[in-house]
Write a structure and sequence with these properties.
Distance between the termini of chain A: 19 Å
Largest sheet of chain A: none
Shape of chain A: globular
Strand order of the largest sheet of chain B: 3-2-1-30
InterPro entries (chain B): Se-bd, WD40/YVTN_repeat-like_dom_sf
Number of strands of chain B: 30
Keywords (chain A): Membrane, Transmembrane, Transmembrane helix
Order of helices and strands of chain A: HHHHHHHHH
Family (chain B): Belongs to the selenium-binding protein family.
Protein name (chain A): Cell wall anchor protein
Radius of gyration of chain A: 18 Å
Structural class of chain A: mainly alpha
CATH class of chain B: Mainly Beta
Helix content of chain A: over 70%
CATH architecture of chain B: 7 Propeller
Number of strands of chain A: 0
CATH topology of chain B: Methylamine Dehydrogenase, Chain H
Structural class of chain B: mainly beta
Oligomer: heterodimer
Organism (chain A): Micromonospora arborensis
Largest interface: A-B, 30 and 39 residues
C-alpha cells in the first residue's frame, strides 16, 4: 500500500474517532459516572476493539474478494452498496437504539461493534481498498484470498489506531478541560456529514471502476 | 428533518440545565369533566415582560370528546445526549398527550407557532391495546431508545397488569410492551429512572375500576390500593425488587429521582395513610445490593368540623393532606410537596435527602380553608395545589388545582373550579411567594379543569441527564 493509502485510512480513522457516537463520549460518561479518569481510559480499549472488529470484517472481505475477482465488478457492487447505504443513512430518521449503560468490557466492545456496523464504518474504507493494487500481483487465484484478507486487516488496524488516538485526545480534552457543556455547541451533526461521505465515496468508486 | 447542532434545550448535565433561560410559555392539559366539549392543550404566557403575562394565549382543542387529559411529555429531551444511543439533532417539538380515560394518545406539534400547537397524530386505544396490551396511558418520559409511556390498565377491558409501552421516537407508533419479566408487579402509575445506573422505578395507584368512578372507601380502608414501588433492570427490562411501604401507606404516586446521575436516591409521595389520614414522603436509596425506602416526611391530617367536610370525610372529622404530586428541583436541592386536601404547597430543603428541612409554605384553596389567591382576595378557592412544576433554574413554581375528574367531585363536591398559580422561589434562603400578576383562573379556562403543566424548553420533571 502507498503512503497515501495509509494516510487516507488513518484520516478516516480520525474522522470516526471524532464522532461522539463512536465511543469517546461513552468513555467520558463512564469516567464521569465513576469520577475516575482510569475508567475513561479503560473504556476506550474495548470500544476500539469493537470498532476494529466491525471495520476489519468489511476490509478483510473486500480485499480477499479483490484477490479473486475482477476489480471492476467489486468496485461497481461496492460503489452501489455505498451510495445506497449512504442515502439510507441520510434520509432515514431512525437512530441506533440501545438502553443500558453499565456494560462489562466485553459488552462495551459489543456495543462499539454494533454502533460502528450500524453506521457503516467499514464500508467507508471501501473506496480506498478497491483502488489498491492487488497484493502479490496475481488476481484471480483463490489462493490469493488469505493474503488479501491480511492486507485488509492491516488496513483496519491502521484505521483503528488512528480512531483510538483521536478518541483518546478528544475524550481527555472534554473530561479534563472543556467539560461536557461543549457538546451543546460543538456537537455538529456528524451523522449527516457521515452519510454524505458514504455517498461521495460510493460515487468516486463507481467513477473509477 | 434533523438539525445541524443539538437542540438548544438539551443539556448534558443538570448543572448546565439549571442555567437555562426562563420559559416564555407553558402548556397545560385541560379537560372537560362532562365530556361534552373537547379537552385541550392550553398555552399560557409566562414571559413577565409580555403584555399577556399570566394569560391564556393559545388553545388547541383535541379532536374527540372524553379523553381526560392528565399527564403529558415531550418527544425528546436531554436524554438524547446520552452516549449509548445519541440523537441530539432531533427537536424537542412534539408533546405526547395521552387521554387517561379514552386511552387515545395525541401527538401535538408545537411548531411552527409555539402558541398555536397542532394535533398531528392520534393513536387510537386499539393500537395501544393490540401492540402493548395496555390501556389508560399516563406518564410520558423521553428515553434513550424510545418514548416510555406508563399505562394503568390492561387491554380489552382487563384490569391489568398495567405497565409501560414503548413508542417509537420518530413515528410515535406503539412498539410494544416494555417488560420482559414483570415479576409480581400488577398495579402501575408513574415511571422514572436512574438512567446511567440501568435502574427503572415504577409506582402503584389502582386498576381502572378502582379509580375511574372515584376513590372507593372500602377498597381504601381495605388497603387494596397500591402500596409498593418496583425496581427494574432498565437494560434487561426485568423486575428486580418490590419494596413494600406497608399496606397502611396507600397510593405511592409520583417518583422523583435525583437528577444528578451519580446519585442513587429519589422521593416518592404517598397520598394517604389509612391509620391516621396523614400523607408522607419516602426516600428510596441503596442498601447494600438491594433497594430500601425510608419515610423522611410525615404530614399529619388537620382536624375539622364534619359539617365542613364532604361526605367521604365526615366520619373522620379531619382533612387529609392528600399529597398527590411532588417535584424535585433540577439541582436536587428543593422538594415541592402538594397537599391537595389541606390546600398547601410545601417546600423542603433536601440537600441532605435523609433529613428534609421545611423552608417554605403557601396556602391556596383547601377542602376547609379555601384560601384565596392574593390577586383575587375575595374569591374563596376550591381545589388545592396539585400538579406542581418547577422551572429549570428553580426560581419559579407552577401549580394547578385539579386532581382527577371523579376524585375532584368527591373531595370538592361543590365544584373544584380551575386555577393555576405561579410562585416565586427564594433560591438562596428558601421560601415561596405567590406572584400576584400570574393567576389565570375561572372563565379563562372556559369551563375546563387544569392538570399538568409543561414548560417550554423543559422543566424539572421532563428531562433526564447522563452526565453529572
Amino acid at each position: 500500500m502507498t503512503v497515501t493509502t495509509w494516510a487516507t485510512l488513518a484520516a478516516l480513522g480520525a474522522f470516526h474517532g471524532l464522532n461522539p457516537a463512536m465511543g469517546w463520549l461513552f468513555a467520558v460518561a463512564r469516567g464521569l459516572q465513576e469520577r475516575s479518569r482510569a475508567v475513561l481510559l479503560r473504556s476506550l480499549l474495548p470500544i476500539a476493539a469493537g470498532h476494529l472488529a466491525s471495520v476489519g470484517i468489511v476490509a478483510a472481505l473486500v480485499t480477499a474478494t479483490r484477490s479473486v475477482t475482477a476489480s471492476t465488478t467489486l468496485a461497481v457492487v461496492g460503489g452501489v452498496l455505498l451510495v445506497a447505504f449512504g442515502l439510507w443513512r441520510l434520509l432515514s430518521q431512525r437512530h441506533f437504539r440501545w438502553a443500558g449503560m453499565r456494560l462489562s468490557a466485553a459488552q462495551l466492545a459489543g456495543w462499539s461493534f454494533l454502533m460502528s456496523s450500524a453506521h457503516g464504518a467499514g464500508l467507508m474504507l471501501l473506496p480506498v481498498l478497491v483502488t489498491e493494487p492487488v497484493p502479490g500481483g496475481h488476481p484471480g487465484h483463490l489462493s490469493a484470498a488469505p493474503v488479501g484478507a491480511l492486507a485488509g486487516l492491516a488496513a483496519a488496524g491502521v484505521h483503528t489506531v488512528a480512531m483510538l488516538g483521536t478518541a483518546l485526545v478528544i475524550a481527555m480534552l472534554v473530561y479534563q478541560v472543556l467539560g461536557v457543556g461543549v457538546l451543546r455547541r460543538a456537537w455538529f451533526n456528524v451523522d449527516r456529514l457521515w452519510a454524505g461521505v458514504l455517498v461521495t465515496a460510493g460515487l468516486v468508486t463507481l467513477i473509477r471502476a | 428533518m434533523t438539525r445541524w447542532t443539538p437542540d438548544p434545550t438539551f443539556y448534558p448535565s443538570p448543572r448546565e440545565a439549571a442555567t437555562a433561560p426562563a420559559e416564555k410559555l407553558a402548556y397545560v392539559a385541560a379537560f372537560d369533566r362532562t365530556a361534552s366539549r373537547p379537552d385541550a392543550i392550553v398555552v399560557l404566557d409566562t414571559d413577565p415582560d409580555s403584555p399577556d403575562y399570566g394569560r391564556v394565549v393559545g388553545w388547541t382543542d383535541l379532536p374527540h370528546l372524553g379523553d381526560e387529559l392528565h399527564h403529558f411529555g415531550w418527544n425528546a429531551c436531554s436524554s438524547a445526549l446520552c452516549p449509548t444511543a445519541p440523537h441530539p439533532h432531533v427537536e424537542r417539538r412534539y408533546l405526547i398527550v395521552p387521554g387517561l380515560r379514552s386511552s387515545r394518545i395525541h401527538v401535538v406539534d408545537t411548531q411552527p407557532d409555539p402558541r398555536q400547537p397542532q394535533v398531528v397524530k392520534v393513536i387510537g386505544p386499539e393500537e395501544l391495546a393490540e401492540r402493548a396490551g395496555y390501556s389508560r396511558p399516563h406518564t410520558v418520559h423521553c428515553g434513550p431508545d424510545g418514548i416510555y409511556l406508563s399505562a394503568l390498565g390492561g387491554a380489552d377491558g382487563a384490569e391489568g397488569p398495567g405497565g409501560i409501552a414503548i413508542l417509537d421516537h420518530t413515528t410515535f407508533e406503539v412498539r410494544g410492551a416494555w417488560e420482559a419479566d414483570r415479576g409480581p408487579q400488577f398495579l402501575a402509575y408513574d415511571v422514572w429512572w436512574h438512567l446511567t445506573q440501568d435502574v427503572l422505578v415504577t409506582s402503584e395507584w389502582g386498576t381502572p375500576s378502582m379509580i375511574e368512578d372515584g376513590i372507593i372507601g372500602e377498597l381504601l380502608l381495605g388497603r387494596r390500593y397500591g402500596h409498593a414501588i418496583h425496581f427494574w433492570d432498565l437494560a434487561k427490562r426485568r423486575h428486580v425488587q418490590r419494596v413494600d411501604l406497608g399496606d397502611a401507606y396507600q397510593m405511592p404516586l409520583e417518583l422523583r429521582p435525583a437528577h444528578d446521575p451519580t446519585k442513587s436516591y429519589g422521593f416518592v409521595g404517598v397520598v394517604i395513610s389509612v391509620e391516621d389520614l396523614s400523607a408522607s414522603i419516602w426516600l428510596w436509596h441503596r442498601d447494600g445490593d438491594a433497594w430500601a425506602v425510608t419515610k423522611v416526611i410525615d404530614i399529619p391530617a388537620e382536624p375539622a368540623d364534619p359539617a365542613n367536610l364532604p361526605d367521604l370525610l365526615k366520619p373522620f372529622g379531619a382533612v387529609p393532606p392528600l399529597v398527590t404530586d411532588i417535584d424535585l428541583s433540577v439541582d436536587d436541592r428543593f422538594l415541592y410537596v402538594s397537599c391537595w386536601g389541606t390546600g398547601e404547597l410545601r417546600q423542603y430543603d433536601v440537600s441532605d435527602p435523609m433529613r428534609p428541612v421545611q423552608t417554605g409554605s403557601v396556602h391556596l384553596g383547601g377542602i376547609v380553608r379555601r384560601t384565596a389567591h392574593p390577586a383575587a382576595p375575595d374569591e374563596a378557592l376550591a381545589g388545592g395545589p396539585q400538579m406542581v412544576e418547577v422551572s429549570r433554574d428553580g426560581k419559579r413554581v407552577y401549580v394547578s388545582n385539579s386532581l382527577y375528574g371523579a376524585w375532584d367531585d368527591q373531595f370538592y363536591p361543590d365544584g373544584v373550579g380551575a386555577w393555576l398559580a405561579k410562585l416565586d422561589v427564594d433560591v438562596d434562603a428558601g421560601g415561596l411567594t405567590p406572584d400576584e400578576r400570574f393567576f389565570p383562573h375561572g372563565d379563562e379556562f372556559r369551563g375546563l379543569r387544569v392538570h399538568q403543566t409543561r414548560l417550554q424548553g423543559g422543566d424539572a420533571s421532563s428531562d433526564s441527564y447522563c452526565f453529572p
